[in-house]
Known about the structure:
- By secondary structure, this protein is mainly alpha-helical.
- It is built from 9 helices and no strands.
- α1 (3-26) packs across α2 and α7 (112-134) crosses α8 (144-160).
- It is globular.
Amino acid sequence: MDGFTKRTETKRRAILDVAVRLMASKQSRFTVSELARAASVSPVSIYNYFGSKEQVIIAVLTEMTEEQMGWIESQIADHVPFDQLLIEILSRKIETAGLFDETITTMIQADPSWQQLAGRGYAAFRQLIEYGKTSGAIDPELSTDSYLRYVQLVQQAILSDPSLSTSPMTESMQDYFRFFLHGIIRKHN
């Protein structure tokens, strides 16, 4: 890698790393100037590398999602127990839920590249469901498509909830996590 390419990649990486930190505290409510100052780059660099603040956010979420899909595939390949894997996946979802606000949700729903990535995500989740079925952790009598539709319905309900932007996303995700793992019927011993 030549010097120019290395400097470009270093700046690009700094922008993405700072954007994650800003999203964790402000979701979409940060400016290009704030991002540039915190990443020690000029605002022009952000526009040159990404085109807009929105594209920086999409790049952050795309990178995180691709990393997550790769991690799931490696965990399945390593035969990590399904229940342990599912709990870790849902815990990671709770951790990243705080990055989202209504603006980011609307942004990703309209972005064609994000829709393509979501399709790949569903393929990875299909693989996860099949793994759960073959390992005996989830009911093999239910179709994989039914599991996927259920997850998609929950995701759509979360994303279309108008109170989403006024309630803490992490708390909501913890509740959905409990519903997903345990249903709504209380278990009696």
